[in-house]
Amino acid sequence: MADYKVDLQDMNFLLDDVFAVAKDWETMPKLSEVVDADTAKAILDEAAKLTENLIAPNLRAADEEGIHFSDGEVTTPKGYKEQFAELAAGGWVGVTASEEFGGMGLPKVLSAQYEEMMCAADVAFSLYSGLTAGAIIALDSHASPELKERYLPNMVAGKWTGSMCLTEPHAGTDLGIIRTKAEPEQDGSYQLTGTKIFITGGEHDLTENIVHLVLAKLPDAPAGTRGISLFVVPKFLVNEDGSLGERNAVVAGSVEHKMGIHGSATCVMNFDGAKGWLVGEPNRGLAAMFTMMNYERLGVGIQGLGAAARSYCTALDYALERRQGRGAKATRDTAAEADPLLVHGDIRRMLLTMKSFIEGGRAFSTFVGKQLDRSKYAASEEGRTKAQALVDLLTPVAKAFLTDTGFEATVLGQQVLGGHGYVREWGQEQLVRDCRIAQIYEGTNGIQALDLLGRKVAGSKGELLKPLLTEISTFLAGDAGEWSNEYGELAILVQEVERITGEVLTQVMQGDENIINSVAVEYLHLIGYVTYGWLWLKMARAAESSDYAESFVQAKQKTAKFYFARILPRVYGLMPSIEAGAKELFAFEQDEF
Amino acid sequence: MADYKVDLQDMNFLLDDVFAVAKDWETMPKLSEVVDADTAKAILDEAAKLTENLIAPNLRAADEEGIHFSDGEVTTPKGYKEQFAELAAGGWVGVTASEEFGGMGLPKVLSAQYEEMMCAADVAFSLYSGLTAGAIIALDSHASPELKERYLPNMVAGKWTGSMCLTEPHAGTDLGIIRTKAEPEQDGSYQLTGTKIFITGGEHDLTENIVHLVLAKLPDAPAGTRGISLFVVPKFLVNEDGSLGERNAVVAGSVEHKMGIHGSATCVMNFDGAKGWLVGEPNRGLAAMFTMMNYERLGVGIQGLGAAARSYCTALDYALERRQGRGAKATRDTAAEADPLLVHGDIRRMLLTMKSFIEGGRAFSTFVGKQLDRSKYAASEEGRTKAQALVDLLTPVAKAFLTDTGFEATVLGQQVLGGHGYVREWGQEQLVRDCRIAQIYEGTNGIQALDLLGRKVAGSKGELLKPLLTEISTFLAGDAGEWSNEYGELAILVQEVERITGEVLTQVMQGDENIINSVAVEYLHLIGYVTYGWLWLKMARAAESSDYAESFVQAKQKTAKFYFARILPRVYGLMPSIEAGAKELFAFEQDEF
């Protein structure tokens, strides 16, 4: 496996030259207090050191060892405890948490870069702190002051971690039918009883306590998703003075044996009259949990990006070192018995596909991160609302498209190595296995697509799509320089997106109940490819007027050209498939499958 | 994991109604002696019982246990020995081998069905007999009568297995630079010295002997691929009387730890002056090995098909059993708290994509199998030549397209199960891991594409493409019935393939040395999708006039419609990418990656 090298130059280019985030921060009081361009750079440098030197080298050993489970106790792989302690000591667990509870209060646009590094270094390990960060947000947004005071400081400090208990054996996507019960007690607490599965970090040995956020139903709760409440259920009860009290009745019953992320403990959690406290309003738990989910979803998207970035390091290294076959006559290294793989067109196609997904994806996650910051911190309500609309639209796209392209990229990164990509030694196969889960959990990518086309686009009668298309069209209305072909093609594609969206909305209005879920995945990909097209042009133009080294500027422009020539055409396959609608899928009787 | 059920009905439909192979056999003396429609059916029934009941149930346990390696010895997973013994006893190892050496001498079009079953049941296990079958063919075609007499009967009987020793640490795709040496001895044998890696079944405990086919260089061999010879090197030397003699100097030095196919021993083989015998002419070893490779390549393609077929069994089962969410109002099962997954459009999209790849792929492998039989057994030389041309063209397509679509299908089959697809229990993740290697070994799919567009299409100045396109066009010139839209679209696509092929050939003639390898993978996919389009129409029309149950006929027609509406449009994304050519890929300097 090649050493993991963070692409700091590209991250700084995005923050400074493409999205000018420091200027943005100046307009947002809460952020201008804690961060400016210089501190941002220093933080990224530190994060790169931490992930490259401390975490990344343990990736394969941790996968080989995996977690150990015995009698309800989880032992994490060698090195994880020390890694987590260092993470906590550096304040990295609370990187986006409010300063009130000891957090750094950094903008998401910055933590998105740090998250990419963590996911590239070891995504299984990153989940312990990543879910904690999500739980912190959910508590900070919805819990009572007393609960916040009791839990947040230790979570932010990385002394305790958080977990997210949603799924039950019979209820994954469909949370409306969960059965875990919460019975009110005299003292204002609740007794929780039920079984939760697929609980990441539900049990482990990294910290002295684990704070579970649990969805459950009150005795009088209405059926469906409007009858779900959110509870905080600590592994150890917390005394008035903040010290740890007795063990709560929540125990890991078993752990899953998975395709990948072997260092992450995925637990069955049994709640057997466990003591918990209500977070937020009764029966409003799903909304509260979605605060956390929405934060996590960009983070899960970034898992795809991180895996791809790591895979690229090894694939490029291998393509430069490994010699097989011969390139074009003029370029042959006749002193050697063969040329480096990089001379071959198909190797270049694979590497550049990866590169266009990685850098396009990094630009995308940075853009969405910037909107998340604006939605929270922008000075004007109008600014916050506008950004929130983009966040609402793009969160499912970020989760699904970053992981779908991330998975494709890691598979290509494995393919570049041939047989060496299939053996564990080189690490490429692990990235494929680790990356695969990101297309599944936190709402499968099919569910993300349904969220995008159903709840967001159709739910707003197309209104929510407009801010994105306006952003792209406004850019395209500017001077095209030497990019008039690409500007022209993308402008037509924006119109095509509008046209196809209109067609789908018409079918919805005509009562086709199946149309949305029948074309949603292709639709999400269409939006993804068009958005990356815009971002690649944005990057190419920003590079033109930057003072980066010529090779960096050239690489950006050439990759943009590559993206338009070789990747973007995929939309011409997607569009007819969307236009075909639901008909062919629902022509089938059950016994015809 | 759902039970594996062989789709015998579809196999019989292809053999009888779509390709009428029994009629074909009647015209081929060698085949008409051994097989007719009734024996073929009986053989498929037996094969289905064997694979469903004996082999398929051990799939996951064998993966979990994997092989054991110690001191040069490999122990295979529990059950493999008994399975292999039963396979050998039933004559299944020599299913296509000549009767002269005890084989069944069955046509490939039939063994292709059996191979699909084996690959679906346990591809790792299937490799031990699959490589033996390939080695049998290579020996039968190229070895001296004495060598054949010495090795073939025991190999055909499954008493000994075969291996294929090509790759070396520095030489995988590029076999021209191998270093293993063969020094001639006084007695006409050779001493082989060198290291081979990635040797499937290089060592194991299933049989008393292993017959290695080894590529090596004679002392005076010219450089490159024209200086490679083929040798047979047994693990135990074979005495004149056929009994086993002393241990040969070939030892497994280690085994690989891989992403999947854990039941298959992938060995580093050290030849330390091992005794071997030349197979065929000196320096013509690569051609001889390609006899085996070409046989294997369809077999490796079928690995993708088998994995997909197995994955579909579980995915469909799960989609029928698992209840989450609600379908369209009229179809809701209001007595239950949720509807089966099958009501959801995106679940249908995933299942039907799988189905269209599996049945389309089965038709494709059957078609290629039929041509392999004709190329060998057709009564007239013209018939053999015509079939051979199709085999030459379609072998790389079969290997790469069946495994690329097979991998996509297994990934979808995993996605249908959500989180349950990621845990080992359900078996879907294993199929993804096991299937992945088929895109890599026996020539990566990139190399297959290069073979198709470079050696076959460009190498024949486009001539070799004609028999396929003629076959399709002739079909399309027939009565379209109610399929005139599909016939019309496909006819235009055939013209597009011709046009794009012409463009590529022009660039080759103009001296672009990089064009072939820059667009070959997309080109192979284009050929694959168009060919599947033709096969789907062929199946739909054959079903129309068959007397199968209405649900079978309907399913074939509806899947054909689905394929044209939702899958075939992918060609509209591929074509512009091919037309973009090599330019964007070769604009990059090394430091711009």
SSE layout and pairing:
2 copies of one chain form a homodimer.
Chain A: H1 8-18, H2 21-26, H3 29-32, H4 37-55, H5 59-65, E1 68-70, E2 73-75, H6 80-89, H7 108-142, H8 145-156, E3 160-165, E4 181-184, E5 190-200, E6 209-216, E7 229-234, E8 236-238, E9 244-247, E10 250-255, E11 266-279, H9 285-321, H10 345-377, H11 381-415, H12 419-422, H13 428-436, H14 445-458, H15 466-476, H16 484-509, H17 515-544, H18 550-567, H19 571-579, H20 583-586
Parallel strand pairs in A: 3-6
Antiparallel strand pairs in A: 1-2, 4-5, 5-11, 6-7, 7-11, 8-9, 10-11
Helix pairs in contact in A: 1-10, 1-17, 4-7, 7-8, 7-9, 7-10, 9-10, 9-11, 9-13, 10-11, 10-17, 10-18, 11-13, 11-14, 11-17, 14-17, 15-16, 16-17, 17-18, 17-19
Cofactor (chains A, B): FAD
Domain Acyl-CoA dehydrogenase/oxidase C-terminal (chains A, B): 283-451
Function (chains A, B): Involved in the assimilation of dimethylsulphoniopropionate (DMSP), an important compound in the fixation of carbon in marine phytoplankton, by mediating the conversion of 3-(methylthio)propanoyl-CoA (MMPA-CoA) to 3-(methylthio)acryloyl-CoA (MTA-CoA).
Describe the structure.
Two copies of one chain form a homodimer. With 593 residues, chain A is an alpha+beta fold. Chain A has three domains: 8-149, Butyryl-Coa Dehydrogenase, subunit A, domain 1; 161-284, Butyryl-CoA Dehydrogenase, subunit A, domain 2 (Beta Barrel), CATH 2.40.110; 444-593. Helix content of chain A is 56%, strand content 11%. Chain A has 20 helices and eleven strands. Chain A has helices spanning 8-18, 21-26, 29-32, 37-55, 59-65, 80-89, 108-142, 145-156, 285-321, 345-377, 381-415, 419-422, 428-436, 445-458, 466-476, 484-509, 515-544, 550-567, 571-579, 583-586; strands at residues 68-70, 73-75, 160-165, 181-184, 190-200, 209-216, 229-234, 236-238, 244-247, 250-255, 266-279. In chain A, the strands form three sheets. In chain A, strands 3, 4, 5, 6, 7, 10 and 11 form a seven-stranded mixed β-sheet that branches. Chain A has a two-stranded antiparallel ribbon with strand order 1-2. In chain A, strand 8 (236-238) and strand 9 (244-247) form a beta hairpin. In chain A, helix 9 (285-321) crosses helix 11 (381-415), helix 10 crosses helix 17 and helix 11 (381-415) packs antiparallel against helix 14. The longest helix of chain A is centred in the middle third of the chain and has 37 residues, at 285-321. The first copy, chain A, is globular, with a radius of gyration of 24 Å. The two termini of chain A are 43 Å apart. The mean pLDDT of chain A is 96. Chains A and B meet through helix 9, helix 10, helix 11, helix 12 and helix 13 of A and helix 9, helix 10, helix 11, helix 12 and helix 13 of B.
